[in-house]
Amino acid sequence: MAIVGSGEAALEIARALAAHAWHGLRVAGYVPLPGEPPVPVSDITADLGPCLGTPEELPGRLARGEIDDIILAAGGDSWQIRLLDGLAGSRPDHTNVLLLPGPFESLIGRMRYRWVRDLPLIEVVRESEWRLNRPVKRLLDLAAGALLLLLALPVLAVCAAAIKLTSPGPVLYRQVRAGRGQLPFTLWKLRTMRRDAEAESGEVLAQPDDPRLTPIGAFLRRYRLDEIPQLANVLAGTMSLVGPRPERPGFVQRYLQEVPGYAERFSLAPGLTGLAQVNGDYHSSPQNKLRYELAYMANWSLWLDLSILLRTVKIVLTSRGV
Fold first, then answer.
1. Residue from 299, 53, 38, 201 nearest 308 by CA
2. According to a count of CB atoms within 10 Å of the terminal CB, is the N or C end of the chain lower?
3. What percent of the chain has a predicted confidence (pLDDT) above 70?
4. CA distance 205 to 197
5. Which helix (H) or strand (E) element contains residue 71?
6. What pLDDT sits at residue 116?
């Protein structure tokens, strides 16, 4: 374990782990955070182990196998806690305190605890749980994806003929997107834009009433018919039926710089539809979509996937959504 923090909370966790070796957890070292109250050097050396550098160095240490897990042990004093303390006793019974979640809060979802003696630790990133969830999710993808593709074949044939008769160029459109682990893959769609539509503009997001659309393209997009070929991506394993929508690499690099927590969405395979697509609007910001995507990851269940798929059918029929 690497403990992020060097204050009293970090020391308490380190001492509890040392005193209860049956947990099977050993402190490999600590990463100090700016602004924490100083603690005696002897305590740090004895309890927290060596300094492991900065938070930015932790991903490399994880990749090299130097550490297995991370405990975040920041102090409990924050403006949120001070505000709640100030409201205590004076807040009317009908008053609620609501939070617009950031990436960290979105990931917590259903809180799952691990106890070290009497210290409750919340699991924020539950990769061990996803090792069990992924096979179930993949089974749903294969079964439902094959059935949907079979049912969609007549519609796909009609759409392909309409594209071929109304505009020059291929029926299918291939595009590189970023998948799980930010690895590139080829996404398939029915072509809805003129051939070489981005030759002059470069990589830009689609807009309502986009002038680059073919005569049939607007109709295909309105009812999401252009997404049907992505069922082949689902069967191939590069996509899932439900998950974060795949973005183009250029946009991904921009969002990684601009949107805190954006990299976490790549823990899952991208989806044909997702929680952001059934709840959000067409022009939802990347930040808001990320809130939905992280909440989906933290609260996943087979029933949640089925619910999103059913709601997607309604959205397709009413031509609403992202």
1. 299
2. C
3. 83
4. 12
5. strand 70-72
6. 75
